[in-house]
Amino acid sequence: MTRALLTLAAALLALPTLAQRLHSPSHKLALQFGLSPAGEPTYQLSYGARAVLRPSRLGVAVQGQAGFVQGLTVVRVDSTEHDDTWAPVWGEVKQVRNHYKELLVTLQQPGAEQRQVQVRFRLFDDGLGFRYEWPRQPNLQYFTVTGEQTEFNLPADHKAFWIPGDYDSNEYAYTTSRLSQVNSANITPIQEKSAPQRVQTPLMLKSADGLYVNIHEAALVNYPAMMLSVNPQSFGLAAQLVPAATGAAAYLQAPEHTPWRTVVVADNAPAILASKLILNLNEPSNIQDQGWIKPQKFVGVWWEMHVNRSSWNYSDASNLKLADTDWQALKPNGHHGANTANVKRYIDFAAKNGLQSVLVEGWNVGWEDWAGNWKEEVFDFVTSYPDFSVAELQQYAASKGIKLIMHHETSGSVTNYERRQDRALDFMKAHGYDAVKTGYVGRIIPRGEHHDGQWMVNHYNRTAQNMAQRQIMVDMHESVRPTGLHRTYPNWLANEAARGNEFNAWSEGNPPEHETILPFTRLMGGPMDYTPGIFRIKLESWNPERNKGRQVHTTLAKQLALYVTMYSPLQMAADLPEAYEQHPDAFQFIKDVAVDWDDTRILQAEPGEYVTIARQTKGSRDWYLGAITDEQARQQTVKLDFLPAGQKYQATIYADGKGASWDKNPEAYQIRRQTVDRNTTLKLQLAPGGGAAVSLKPVGAK
Predict the structure, then answer these.
(1) Residue ranges in the chain whose pLDDT is less than 50
(2) N-term to C-term CA, the chain
(3) Angle at 440 (CA atoms; ends 436, 446), nearest 5 degrees
(4) Could you confirm whether 392 is annotated as catalytic?
(5) CA distance 338 to 435
(6) Contact criterion met (CB below 8 Å) for 341 and 290
(7) Measured in whole angstroms, how far is the alpha carbon of residue 479 from the centre of its chain?
(8) Residue 192's pLDDT is what?
(9) Per the residue annotation, which of 148, 171, 502, 515 is the catalytic one?
(10) What distance in Å separates the CA atoms of residue 545 and residue 360, rounded to the nearest whole number?
(11) 358 burial type by CB count under 10 A (0-12 exposed, 13-18 middle, 19+ buried)
(12) Which phi and psi (to 5°) does residue 465 adopt?
């Protein structure tokens, strides 16, 4: 339902000091827009009597002209209210309410050309979204954006959960500090050294009086990602756009608009995680037939390479050229993971345990010298190594009712991938693959472009669209962080775009607090392929020589809980089959837990400390609960009042065992069962770095 509330003629809006005020539907939030004496657009946001954002400037700088920064006048204001409910193809809830009030302000440059820009605000009860729009107009067609003047001026020195503003990687552990202490100078860069006070979004903030603020963006299309520059003295944040190879930010053609800048606000942490504001700001999907889009669990030839049991490369040769190498003549190294017999082993395991698919990495030629060389012709995406039979595995997987997931690593050579993508997708369809994991490790080609710049943003979106047209699902790794576009492209099941579980295998690892921060940061924009489910926590047993001292910073029970707390419709049982076969009782939770949901309840949460979430399986009365903690042991008291009245449930509780801890005794767990109902309160004892997972199934259900 949309209804026009107010339209004011230009003659009534001539005064630059005119301020417009807008309240959210339930009056929780108030927005005020105005012009400074210099004709600069400004806005401010409040939550009740508390300031969320002090007066902050708006504007877009344009190459070769005055831009849309100052000297502007208001020529029109329109206001509307919108309220509807829509059903996602898959998600955390069955239905999403989209209720906001909107203010559309049309601004005009001085001078004879009278170029216009519009600022569209949408104010929800849980936050604000706004973007810049350029309508079709005679004096503005092609233009180059050099930057934004967008500010988020905070009223105090809030606690911040941040990672450096690297234009090419999101794979950092989070730092928790006051805004005044943000400084990445001593953090080792993953790709590119960030400016010391530049951070990435989503940025999670908490005020001293308990106001939670999350700043990000929605619907990132045809535009670079937004970083934030922190002023440690004023606590102001300023948008900084990832530059193209030319140094400009974005090349646009009117009519056009930017992504939405988003500010999610609540007086409690669970409400931040429950927000659907970013999703609501994305466009609905125009995919008519959606039956082929299937959330799923999978295993894969993947973790065994990370723990040095096998390799991606077939040979140990180097300095190979894709077109000139006789791959059949290469001497095999004897530890190539993606061989036919090994993949059959994973297929058998998936079929036996009710998992839907198997990912295979390292199946295709080119892995001998793929990384770090800024090399363009790396992979062709259709030629397999001599020990991997595409046809045989296609037939074998089909006979077991299992789907294979394709892997397209680009090594950052995106020009090469774009040239070959159509043929690669045809190859997939011809051999029964309907899902692919893409990767973008390394520096981008075209050289000088960044992972998070406009050129690459367009590539990711174009790839999702191309795959949707061919009914292929996609999981992107090393991509720009998501901004809710899985509403528009529901075949875009997940991204990595953050520091995943793999870092525990070959670096200093992820601190136990990491998974309690990610839901408030990276996951605000969309699902993450975090690859949970590691059961053999200490990794030396896989390869004592190469894994000395390495371990995942977790308990086994916490790895189970992550299937609930780290939302994704694509969940991997990431460990090797033999690790699960040693613990079949604990593996039962991974077999049972759903990946698609009708309802989600954020029961308890505090960024950097703990998260407890319950979810109801789509089309079922089953519920699953996950609780995780940071380095501190905690007792979580969980009320089960979300269960339906009059129904008994059997709770199977997978908990940390006696003496468990992430560092000294990570694999200790216990399983207990009890009958519960909506009046029951569970007491979950979480070990340091630990967690608990609970399955809740109706008693007497068939």
Answers:
(1) 1-17
(2) 41
(3) 125
(4) no
(5) 18
(6) no
(7) 10
(8) 85
(9) 502
(10) 25
(11) buried
(12) -70, -45
